[in-house]
Amino acid sequence: xxxxxxxxxxxxxxxxxxxxxxxxxxxxxxxxxxxxxxxxxxxxxxxxxxxxxxxxxxxxxxxxxxxxxxxxxxxxxx
Length: 78
Known about the structure:
The chain is mainly α. About 60% of the residues lie in helices and about 5% in strands. Strands 1-2 form a two-stranded antiparallel sheet. A hairpin with a 3-residue loop joins strand 1 and strand 2 (about 10).
């Protein structure tokens, strides 16, 4: 399971409702996979260059950067 700081699994942080509202994808895995990012661990996630994931997020979501998407997800997480 992919986890981010605070140990919230990505699948919990980015539920399908969030993904469908803000992206063209049904899941966070689908978004990452479509960008050519293989993320099976926190190390994989950390290894993604910021500029690469920012460009993919800006192109395929309503956000301008990965940090903006992550911040929005954290703020809407309950």
